[in-house]
Fold:
Amino acid sequence: MSVGSVENLSHILEREHLFDVSDLHAEPTLISRCGTLEVTLAYDVKGRRMSVTVHHARDIPSKDRGGASQTQVRVLLLPTKKQKYKTKIRGGDNPEFSETFVFIKVNPEDVATMGVRLRLYGCERMRRQRMIGESLLSFAQLDLDQPTTHVIHLEPRCNIGHGDSKSDVTSLSRSDSTSSTQSMQHGGVPELMIGLSYNGTTGRLQVDVIKGSHFRNMAMQRAPDTYVKLSLMGSGGAEMTRSKTSIRRGQPNPLYKETFMFQVALFQLPDVTLMVSVYNKRSMKRKEMIGWYSLGANNSGEEELSHWDDMRASKGELVCRWHILLES
Structure:
């Protein structure tokens, strides 16, 4: 993101009176599991390094079930989201990767609050790379005195069939698998799932605010009262329109299930930015931001850019993703 883009987003945030200031085609069949990854983690206390070895993947779905013939694993350090690696692209239903990545500055006093996110991507020729499945692994559950090997079950990026997309998306929730729901110590990293679709004929941008995860109120011993605000901004950074959800009270993992429509002409789509902000409403006149991210022209990161691009390529199908909230 450019300096000017960051400044534009900062102006939008300041006006809110903050506390203290896919694939090109639809997937043919719904799948509930996306295979497994075998990984080994080894912690070097003196060097403050965590080594992650990606051995292989097993039982990847076939192409006609939403899988791919060539795949790649991407590893991201949480919650900082600043160190990331990816394997070489391998072929087959049971690809062998055998690659080791080293994350630095993993301090002993912080290791229990950290973890990695592993994602498996399909990398077909002449097509956009598409995420097949993902999982989270918390360092808090590791034996740091010796290397530990784990077989991790991957979960699909979303559970949307080909019937009524709107009704299907409202039933989405965080995966129930042990590997995906394993919380980081102190509540994990705050995330928000949204769904995006765009109809070029009608010029309608649909945004589904679906579910939050690991929302917390550090100042109070209870879950926060939260709502999500959506701001659509033009190329110059000016706010074109805004909407917000109703408040979910006292829920660390709130389910919103609210749909919003924005009118965006096809020629405007490459230039607009969707700002997504989560607020904790502390009183009638006081609120604080839990976090934010942005999609579109001035996106806040690689995952947000990928989600926006997949929406544009999906030809009106709803594309759902989790995104980590950035601190305000």
